[in-house]
Specification:
Distance between the termini: 33 Å
Number of strands: 5
CATH class of one domain: Alpha Beta
Largest sheet: 5 strands, parallel
Order of helices and strands: HHHHEHHEHEHEHEH
Structural class: alpha/beta
Length: 275
């Protein structure tokens, strides 16, 4: 039996969901409809309905979504050349979520982000045959740890041994503390995670005293050689809304990291050195 998520993790997840664009838009629309229903004023109700519609349509448009997400994804370039990285011993693949379903292969239980991270981790590991894959992530709202599912999925893709599973961490900060038990403070390692998640991950890794080499993947904003946008980009879409949600989630995560997680990691590192 896996332990229940801590109250702090639950609170963080709940606050994050309330701040998502669709949640904000829904709240505004429901509030506006409630004012109309109870006859509390047509102008305030109309204003709330207009704001809710603008939030929903705005965040679901590609220009807005890409403007939000691009600064995060462009911070680090993908690793396309491993020359000079022969001494790297670890390829760390951070958790990105899954949903256990015994009817499905492990690769199909992973979220899109997790599958992209896994594929990139395996790609880099195969180019660095002396390296070891490290999978992180505990069981959050699921019966099985994320590291375990990632390892099973890697096995289905032909990567069996060796590998290291860190199956207790519940969030990125805890993943970095767990990595300290495996990787020396001054030892370089490849850190694989989604491009939008990489800035926060690197910040937390450095706060934990680690020396990561960013290896971003799962780029959601892609630009073709043609500079002109497709006409469909100017219409609301679920894909654009997903990109906006990813961006908002990461910006919120960066604020949370600076306010709470970075100081906590630094205190933990200092206490470890003093001890």
């Amino acid at each position: 039996m896996n332990p229940e998520p801590s109250p702090m993790i639950l609170l963080k997840k709940i606050i994050g969901q309330f701040c998502m664009p669709l949640s904000v838009a829904g709240f505004l629309l429901v509030a506006g409809l409630a004012l109309l229903w109870f006859g509390k004023g047509r102008k305030p109700a109309g204003l709330l309905l207009l704001l809710g519609t603008m939030v929903a349509v705005g965040f679901a448009s590609s220009p807005v979504a890409d403007r939000l997400l691009t600064p995060l994804e462009r911070r680090y370039e993908p690793v396309t050349d491993v020359r000079g990285l022969a001494d790297v011993r670890f390829v760390v693949v951070l958790g990105g979520g899954h949903r256990s379903d015994p009817r499905l292969p492990a690769t199909m239980q992973l979220s899109d982000a997790s599958l992209a991270r896994l594929v990139e981790g395996i790609r880099l590991h195969r180019q660095l045959p002396e390296s070891v894959l490290v999978f992180t992530g505990g069981a959050v709202f699921d019966a099985f740890s994320h590291a375990q599912v990632m390892a099973e999925a890697a096995g289905e893709l032909g990567e069996l041994e060796p590998r290291i599973l860190l199956d207790q961490p519940r969030d990125t900060a805890e993943e970095m503390l767990a990595l300290r038990e495996v990787i020396a403070a001054d030892e370089l390692f490849l850190l694989v995670t989604s491009a939008s998640h990489m800035p926060r991950s690197v910040t937390l890794a450095k706060a934990a005293g680690l020396a990561p080499i960013p290896a971003p993947t799962d780029f959601l904003v892609k630009q073709s050689l043609e500079k002109e946008r497709h006409p469909g980009d100017y219409f609301p879409s679920a894909a654009a809304l997903r990109r906006s949600e990813r961006a908002v989630y990461e910006y919120l995560g960066m604020v949370w990291a600076q306010v709470r997680e970075v100081p906590r990691l630094r205190r933990t590192v200092a206490e470890t050195k003093d001890g």
